[in-house]
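Here is a complete protein record:
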Amino acid sequence: MLANALVPFGYDPAGDRIKLDGPQVRVTAKQMQALSMALHELATVAAKYGALSIDHGTVHANWTLDKANIAHFRLAWQESGGPAVRLPERQGFGTVMLAWILAQEINGEISLDYNSDGLVCSMEGWPEDRN
């Protein structure tokens, strides 16, 4: 799913601009839809203003599992080598979607860190039956 979502932004498994690292993860259909939307939003912003907007910028997405066959995952999106990042003056739809809607859809938590050397988005999701 990650690779498919990022092909329109130049993802090539043999390339070095967008790197994907992690095991296969089973997530719910609801989580899959939300993650696809989030990755598309992150890649769109990276292509317009971030690391993918210039020739030498890169994105690294990596994810881990806590237990096999359980939909508990951690995913990190990290940009580097792009223009200096600054905190947005206002929250647009994409930020609201990532910070609030996506967190509900993946039954988890999202954080956005506007580091000057690149945006970092961390996501953590759990199965729907999490207490």
The beta strands are 18-21, 58-65, 73-80, 108-115, 118-125.
